[in-house]
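S1.2 Input.
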Amino acid sequence: MQPGSMKEWAFRVFDFDRERPPAVFWAVATTSLAGLLVCFFRWSLVGILTVFVEPMLEIGVFLVFGASLVWAAVHALRLFRGLRRNRFTPLLLAIAALGVFIFVPFTKIYLRIDFARHLQARTAAAQQLVVSRASMPPNEREAPDLIPMAGLSDGGEAMYLRTQTNQMVFFFTFRGILEHFSGFVYSATDAAPETDDFGGNLIEVDHLRPHWYWVASI
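S1.3 Output.
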């Protein structure tokens, strides 16, 4: 396909009848992309910007996206001198992006990627820790040991808990304030963590695979 014909094909697909897409189209495209990046990398941004700053960034991005959505709606409904075919394209793009923000489970996708990416390294680190502490006495559930785990746990530390019947290692994916945290737990016996383990109140405990659980505490 020749360059000229490719350009004509693109303009037919997007229904543009001017020399270049209108500014509202680029506004919607840019803010939609920013929203997608924020949604997918939310927890990485929390680790970089802290739990206090990241929500403000997220609110700012989606306020700008909302403004571009309103602009696209006005652009679509405004009475033009003559009938411009491309007036609905930015609005349709904005609506599609909004649907993605609402219905795509970005957090679950991100966590699955994180779990698969670090599974081998976390398993090796957890097994080494379990073996090295096999002869130690149990510790209190409210005061698990903090173990340096740079690159494998949010904040650079993991929690180690030894009970009467099990040894567990908690790798943070979100290390919030006080008892608000979440992450992956390696269980040496494959037994599920109990509600009051790790000094929190575990409201989610999902078995991912042998020896591994996803947990969240409030």
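S1.4 Remarks. Residues 158 and 171 are 5 Å apart (CA to CA).
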